[in-house]
Amino acid sequence: MSVIGFGKRYEEQGTERSRFHGLLNESQALLASVCVSDYFPNSILGHWFDKFFGFLSRLEKNFQEFDKFYQELIDEHLDPNRAKPEQEDIIDVLLQLWKDRDLKVDLTLDHIKGVLMVNFFT
Hints:
This protein has helices spanning 2-6, 14-32, 36-39, 44-52, 55-78, 90-99, 109-120. It is mainly alpha-helical and 122 residues long. It starts with a helix and ends with a helix.
């Protein structure tokens, strides 16, 4: 998925690999964690437990890190000095749609990040 979705391989790139894998590992840990408010959605007590034990802050930090990661990928693709790839990736296609003002849908960069997140986790 990383080549098709992001235009690069993260298995072979030192620091970026560590960052990418760190985000992935934390996301998997959060998905496997018990979130009390999932079991008691209408209870303030469930929310309080999640906040007290740091689950909500971990979740928010992970979201912010992914948002930053996706923004950097988008910025790389928007760079006019970027070498043209042999084959477009999903970010290139989404940015073309974003630039197309004839679309009836008002596509934003947050929409693009959302599509990337869905593709990343599927």
